[in-house]
Amino acid sequence: MRVWFNRTFSSVYSAIGLIREADLEGRFHLIYSNANVHATAARVAHEFYPEPTGLESAAYIDWCIQFCREHRVDIFVPGKESTALAGCHARFAAHGTRVLSAAAPEALQLIHDKARFYAETELPGAPVAQFRVFETLAQFDAAYAELRAQHAQLCVKPSRSVFGLGFSVLDEQRSSAALLIAGVQYHIGLDDMRRGLAELGECRTMLLMEYLDGHEYSVDCVGDHGRLVCAIARKKPLQAGRGQLIDMREDILDATAQLTRDYGLNGVFNVQFREGAGKLRLLEINPRMSGGIGMACVAGPNLPYIALRGFADGFEQVDIAPVRNGIRVTELNTATELV
Prior knowledge:
It is a single chain. By secondary structure, the protein is α/β, with parallel strands linked by helices. It contains twelve helices and 16 strands. It has three domains: 2-101, Rossmann fold (3-Layer(aba) Sandwich); 108-112 and 213-329, D-amino Acid Aminotransferase, Chain A, domain 1, CATH 3.30.470; 131-210, no CATH class. The protein has helices at 12-22, 57-70, 82-85, 89-93, 105-112, 114-120, 137-148, 176-182, 190-200, 250-263, 293-297, 303-313, and strands spanning 2-5, 29-34, 47-50, 75-77, 98-99, 131-134, 154-158, 168-171, 187-189, 206-210, 216-224, 227-235, 244-246, 267-276, 279-286, 328-329. The strands form three sheets. The chain has a six-stranded antiparallel β-sheet with strand order 15-14-11-12-13-16. Strands 3-2-1-4-5 form a five-stranded parallel β-sheet.
């Protein structure tokens, strides 16, 4: 069975390696493509092909369909343009290709827009942090006055972003220059923030939120169109260098199962939680494999293989190993030559 992963995040390297490790029968022939011919996943896939650059969404989807025809792709696992491709399943099916999408296009659009996602998500076991939306200095000041009266520290982040880009804790005492010189990451001076907003006049949609200072939990999951098949929760340390703890908290698993049902989640995806003031809060859903997927799988279940095998043959055909709760995991970097 020929399976294609197009250009996506670097975690695909771990995913392809994990699938090949578990695929003892050699059932899956894994294809990877990327515009970067030195992409590391090219080293572990059975076949690698370069992707074109500069294509608009519609043209890229046409190229994907042609690629599936030419390379006889049975299952397509999209990364690039995954939201648009989630609405094109019928076009690919006409050529014999099934598309493994993390959710329906409407759900993916909502998940990627945190302002809408936070406003519409009801999760009693792990509610979202208090937040307000702003695009101007006046809106920011009004939101700050309201939330600062209730919380000791606030933060900002874009409504649309990945990898935490744009996230900063607001510092009322120090300037951004002082924070930079002190080596304090992910912080910005409040006065500098206000000055920048005044200069911009209007900015992209941003969120002002209560800052959550507790442990973060990253939950790597496999879903079957709204049913949570398997989940592995990792507790991240407050200080780097101590590994991550597999912590299968019941409240986290219950909240994750509810989100899976509510948004019809499918395949491999990731849910992020964080504690604040002793309470569990939802941060986001990542409708894709997380960067820590390899660490999660050290705990037992091989999530990329489970998702692929279940999609291909039905989950009743898949044996899922028990999760080794309580173990501590980490990743080791190995240098290699690119050819």
